[in-house]
Structure prediction request, 435 residues.
Amino acid sequence: MKQLAFLMMILLTLGIKQLNSQQAKDLGGIPPVEFQVELNNSQSEFFTVEVKGNAYERGFQHGKALRKVIRPAVSRFKYELITPMLEALGDKFTYADYHTFFFNHTGLLATAKKQVPELVEEIRGIADGANLPFEDLFVYNLNFDETFWVLEKMIGVDPILIMEKAGKKVDGHCSHGSVWGEGKATVGYTLDWVRTFEGTQALIKHVLPNGDVLLTTTYAGCLIGHGINATHGYTFTPHSKFQLEHDVDNGLAQIFIYRKLLEAGSVMKAKAYLENVHPAAGLAYTLTDKNGTITYEISANKVAEFKTAGNWMTVCNVARTNNDLSASNLKEYNLVKGEVDMNNLPDQYWQYNKDSEKRFSVISNGIKGKKPEDMSPEKWEEIFKQYPVNKPVNEDIATSNLWHVVEIDNEFITYHVSPGNPGNIPLETYRFKYQ
Prediction:
């Protein structure tokens, strides 16, 4: 009997070795994507988590692993961001008022439940794993542009325009540059947001039920900020376009759009998704694979592609091609809906958005005429270290940074990431041979 058990163990071992050998042979000696990179929390400057299973299970693993970071981050969001922002806008509301208004007077949760129920369940999993109320985690996940538009609906004024007219800087901003040609592409990108999230930067590896692998940077407790589809070799970047029309009653929040783009499986499938999505906030999205970058500015009512005159792309935070401006912007610049000429906008439009224009100029001047092989991570850093692209956290600037360089060729996608501003914390490198 012992001999039979021993023989079966040998046969099983040989079978496993043969399977692994065949997998390696199929991938040119490289294991399946899931096993090509293992995150190491003790060596990374990020909080790192690897999650696997259905949406709820992955959320629960995320929430449980980072609960000690998520709980104080949610408190800071509630009491050091939302309540002070309401006070700064001249109203005596608190986070509790914002929370009540969010769920009673917007359609953000209902739309998400209808269109992306699995991602709502992932947030529920994060909440359960961190032992926090689901509603607080849901509001916290929608901490980006939708926050301003919920406030706008709540208090009756556009918070961004108020700050711009008062000469106050909107610290959170994102800058993108990309270069491509001959089956190669490279992307430089900063995702910057408010100081409330400083110290929560996380790197999360998702293994989806279909086997696809996503590697994403985010803030602990959030679904995503940026990332790569390591299985299919592409990436995306998001960019606030505060000037564009938005819809918190019927639109889908951007955090969900991010994930749907990465889960799509290809740039073409992601492109098709963007062409039909109805967003809650106006943004620009870039999609990049080895063939290059495509960029869309998307508002509540319109999808407009933005192009440059070459194999390069620069995107910052001012709308340049989509003329579906918000009601507050139309009023501010004395424009008529449907008749806006984006090539003939008032000087004040560009004055209010001069930070974005400066960043656009810095990046464009640094990459025009370049080839992918010219743009190493070090070269990207030289460009992105320049002000105002680079805005490190200090006494005056409340920007929390994530920055990335992505390199893609016919076989590999390489993700260089840092939880700091360019030139501060060194980039970490994660390389995948994609399918």
Notes: The first strand starts at residue 47 and ends at 52. Residues 1-27 have pLDDT under 50 and may be disordered.
